[in-house]
Write a sequence for this structure.
């Protein structure tokens, strides 16, 4: 008799076959079973109720982001009612952006080939969500729903929340790394999700330090550069196939990372030039 977790892994396999017919679903299923002692896609099941790690951790990430943003604004007396409108907006546009970029890097998928469950279920690219949320942020700045000061104050919440979400990726078995020789600690693949999570915590602590020292004006450019470098580097250790690779060299995320780093460097140059 299969355990609930094994049943979940098999259901993920058939879900993969249905939505992504050209994806190597056999490799994905093998990865899930191979790491079954470490991964926890299904946390527990009581009767018909099942609690899955991926939606739980990402839900916690959004909750943490909201509370931290609220805290950073309140402590500097910059909180107003438009913040809630802005936060709901970045949630919706971030969700859509993450889904759209996932479809783009999965070139065999088309909007008319995906079911409604795809838009409500798994299958995200974080940088797509970041692009979607950024576009809404630019719109919000133009409409004066938020100020540049408020944006910089809230930025430390982003890497902290993202770090929590990446733990959810690790437990669910997605975004996994290439094979490696770490059998001594029970790993046969690079734990890139946890490596990224640790890096994100460090970035968050640095931006938090900026807020504490009232240097929040540095947050946006330092986030763009630091996360761009982190993501670009870790992409070389990624082992999952749905990432979009160009010229057999750079993934979609690495191209976006280069753009992030470039924007951050230009911001520093323009700031120094204006002094």
């Amino acid at each position: 008799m299969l355990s609930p977790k094994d049943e979940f892994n098999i259901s993920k396999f058939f879900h993969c076959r249905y939505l992504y017919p050209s994806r190597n679903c056999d490799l994905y299923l093998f990865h899930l079973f191979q790491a079954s002692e470490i991964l926890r896609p299904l946390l527990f099941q009581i009767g018909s109720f099942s609690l899955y790690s991926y939606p739980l951790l990402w839900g916690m990430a959004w909750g943490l982001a909201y509370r931290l943003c609220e805290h950073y604004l309140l402590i500097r007396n910059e909180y107003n009612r438009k913040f809630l409108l802005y936060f709901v907006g970045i949630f919706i546009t971030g969700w859509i952006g993450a889904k759209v970029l996932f479809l783009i890097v999965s070139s065999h998928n088309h909007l008319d080939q995906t079911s409604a469950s795809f838009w409500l279920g798994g299958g995200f690219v974080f940088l797509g969500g970041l692009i979607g949320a950024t576009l809404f942020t630019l719109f919000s700045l133009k409409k004066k729903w938020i100020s540049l000061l408020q944006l910089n104050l809230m930025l430390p919440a982003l890497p902290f929340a993202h770090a929590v979400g990446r733990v959810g990726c690790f437990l669910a078995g997605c975004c996994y790394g290439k094979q490696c020789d770490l059998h001594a600690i029970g790993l046969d693949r690079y734990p890139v999700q946890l490596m990224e999570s640790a890096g994100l915590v460090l970035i968050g602590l640095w931006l938090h330090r900026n807020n504490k020292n009232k240097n929040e004006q540095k947050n946006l450019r330092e986030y763009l550069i630091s996360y761009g470098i982190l993501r670009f580097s870790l992409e070389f250790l990624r082992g999952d196939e749905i990432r979009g690779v160009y010229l057999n060299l750079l993934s979609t995320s690495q191209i976006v990372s280069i753009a992030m780093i470039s924007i951050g460097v230009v911001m520093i140059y323009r700031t120094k030039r204006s002094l």
Remarks:
- The chain is about 65% helix and 5% strand.
- Residues 159 and 202 are 9 Å apart (CA to CA).
- Confidence is low (pLDDT under 50) at residues 4-24, 29-35.
- The longest strand covers residues 42-46.
